[in-house]
Design a protein that fits this description.
- Residues 122-173 form the RNA polymerase sigma factor 70 region 4 type domain.
- Belongs to the sigma-70 factor family. ECF subfamily.
- Keywords: Sigma factor, Transcription, Transcription regulation.
- The protein is an all-alpha fold.
- The chain folds into two domains: 2-91, RNA polymerase sigma factor, region 2, helix turn helix motif (Rna Polymerase Sigma Factor, Chain: A, Orthogonal Bundle), CATH 1.10.1740; 110-183, Arc Repressor Mutant, subunit A (Orthogonal Bundle).
- It has helices spanning 2-10, 14-36, 39-56, 65-93, 95-101, 111-127, 133-144, 149-156, 160-177.
- The longest helix has 29 residues, at 65-93.
- The chain starts with a helix and ends in a 7-residue tail after the last helix.
Length: 184
């Protein structure tokens, strides 16, 4: 039965994939939640797991579907946890950024803050050419490339404090010259 379901999904059957999701959604959620320990993050990660399952089903080799799905879920949850820990470390290194962005300090950021940051990144990318040359690189590296202050300082062979100052000045320029309605 499982093999037939997998073959149907591989052949592009949306219905078969919905059946697979229904069959394993609780198991995937419990697996992911056991690692992330946050309901909202586990819900988001569970959806991402099913996207990964769909895109990598061609690699499935009939070794037990539930076992394979569990492995995909565990690996994805661990990746999510590592990313959150890295973000947390960067925020700890840069308390100015944390306070300025209004991000909660409890490790994982709220969905709203993540959405706002993604939107800001998209808007900045669109308007990057308008920035003075002195601000463009630091804004690009931080918002588009998502580099840490430390990484940027290493690349530019300057102190972290210099990067903080450059970003502060670039943000001031953006606040002064760009109005919120410009981004709509």
């Amino acid at each position: 039965m499982e093999q037939a379901l997998v073959e149907k999904v591989k052949n592009g059957s949306d219905h078969a994939f919905r059946v697979l999701i229904e069959k394993y959604k609780h198991h995937v959620f419990k697996t992911v939640y056991s690692i992330l320990r946050n309901q909202k993050d586990a819900e988001d990660a569970s959806q991402e797991v099913f996207v990964k399952i769909y895109t990598s089903l061609s690699q499935y080799e009939n070794q037990g579907l539930k076992t394979w799905i569990t492995r995909v879920a565990v690996n994805h949850a661990i990746d999510c946890k590592r990313k959150a820990a890295r973000r947390h470390e960067e925020m700890e290194e840069n308390p100015e950024y944390t306070a300025e962005a209004g991000i909660r300090r409890e490790g994982l950021r709220s969905v709203e803050a993540m959405f706002e940051e993604k939107q800001l990144r998209l808007l900045v990318r669109r308007r990057l050419g308008e920035l003075p040359e002195s601000h463009r690189k630091v804004i690009y590296d931080y918002y588009i490339e998502e580099k840490s202050y430390k990484k940027m300082a290493e690349e530019q062979q300057v102190e972290v404090k210099t990067i903080e100052t450059k970003l502060y000045r670039a943000r001031l320029w953006m606040r002064k010259h760009w109005k919120e309605e410009d981004f709509r």
